[in-house]
Structures are given as C-alpha cells and as structure tokens.
Amino acid sequence: MFDTGAHLRKVRKKFNLTLDQLAGRSGIDRGTISRIELGHVSPRIDTIACLCKAMNTSLPEFFSRGTAWTGPGDGGPQAGPVANLEAGAEPAKVTDIYWPVPRTMWQGLVDVVERFEALLAHSNELVLVLDGPGRVLYFSPGGEALLAHRTSEVLGTSVLDLVHPEDRTRFRTALTGGAPGAAESRTFRFRHRTGEWLAFQCTFTDQLENPSIRARILNAALA
Fold it and tell me: Is 174 in contact with 202 (CB distance < 8 Å)?
C-alpha cells in the first residue's frame, strides 16, 4: 500500500523544505500539509499536484516511487520508475506494491491530470473550478497569464474577490441560478494584479450534481 502522507514527508525532507516553506510555495495551509503527512486526511489529486509543483516535481515522479528517491544533491541515476522508463526499461518493472490501487488506475488518473494541464498551459482562456460557496478549487495557467495572479494566491479564496464590486450581484446570480448541467454566458469584469479591470465573456456550467466533478465550472475569455 502506497502511503501518500509518509511519502510526501519523505519527498519534502529530500528537498530540504520545512512545512512552512512548502506551505508558502504551494499556498496550501501548513496544518493541512501536516495532517496529510500524518495520515489524518486523504488528499485530493489536485492538492497533491499543487504540492508537487511547489517542490518542482511532477505527479508521475511523485507516485512512481522506486527503491530510492533522487532529489537535489543525490548522485547517480534516478532509481524510480520514471527514470527507468527514460532509460528504456519496460513498465512491467513498476509493481503494484507502490500504488494504493492498481497501478493502471493511478497512472490513468495521473495521465488525465497531466494532459489536462498540458492542454491549458498555453491557453488564453481563464478556467475556474468553484465549490458550492464559490471558493476557487482550480485556477488555470491561462488565468495566471491574463490576470497576473499566482495560483497559490487564488486557491481557496472567494471568486467574488476577483469580480468588480458593481458586477458581484449579477455574477452571484449567474453562478448559482443556472440549471444543473446547463451553460450560460455573461460579461463580467475581473481584477488584474495591477488593479485594472478587464472584461471577460464568462460561461458558467453547474456540475455540482455530477458525482465525478461536484463543482461549478467557469470558462472566460477576454471580451
């Protein structure tokens, strides 16, 4: 059984990061990281992805644990499965003992996240994933480019903090008033890091009742 919390602690220490440093880099609360490491909570895949990014590693590298983890200052070739694949070894050398569920399931999940990030990496569209109360669960790379806000600054905050005060009532109605699964488009102003207000054409999709998503999706392009 792969112990995500214990492995997170191992990787963090390998990169010589304290809990406070990792929290500062990732924007995830120190207490949350500590509870993950202690096994008191089961982290979501996007939380682990955010922590991996803060440690300058990737989801595949994190989950493909080999006999040793090669971090900064370690000599020799990496012993993990990712390095083995780069060297031409067969994937069969990665055994299921390294995964909390069969490897193919974990790898499929990792692949989906990696492809999703790759598709959005150079997109000029803002994509936000919001929970029921409107807190930001995901802030796309396009959002960073368009608004100049760091992901770590936006995650967990209210989406209304980004919306022009005069637009907030209409925005809240558009966000919560749509039928489940329906998409509606409106124009709203979002705050750039400089304080400038930019107009976006926004499309809201309510997926709160979708058990695979349980969130609201906001797609926005400059108007």
Answer: yes
Report the C-alpha gap between 104 and 162 in whole angstroms.
Answer: 39
| CA 33 – CA 79 distance, rounded (Å) | 26
User: What string of pLDDT tens digits covers the 223 residues of the chain?
Assistant: 567 888 899 999 988 999 999 999 988 889 889 988 988 877 777 788 889 888 988 776 777 654 334 444 443 333 333 333 233 333 333 333 333 444 455 555 566 666 666 655 566 789 898 988 898 888 888 888 899 998 878 888 899 999 999 999 999 999 888 777 667 789 999 999 999 999 999 999 888 888 777 888 999 999 8
- Cα distance between residue 181 and residue 89, in whole Å: 44
Distance CA 148, CA 27 (A): 16
Burial of 223 (0-12, 13-18, 19+ CB in 10 A): exposed
Phi, psi of 3 (to 5 degrees): -90, 100
Rounded to whole angstroms, the Cα distance separating 172 from 217 reads 13
The DSSP secondary-structure symbol of 56 reads T
Domains of the chain: 4-120 (1.10.260.40), 122-222 (3.30.450.20)
Residue 37, phi then psi, degrees to nearest 5: -65, -35
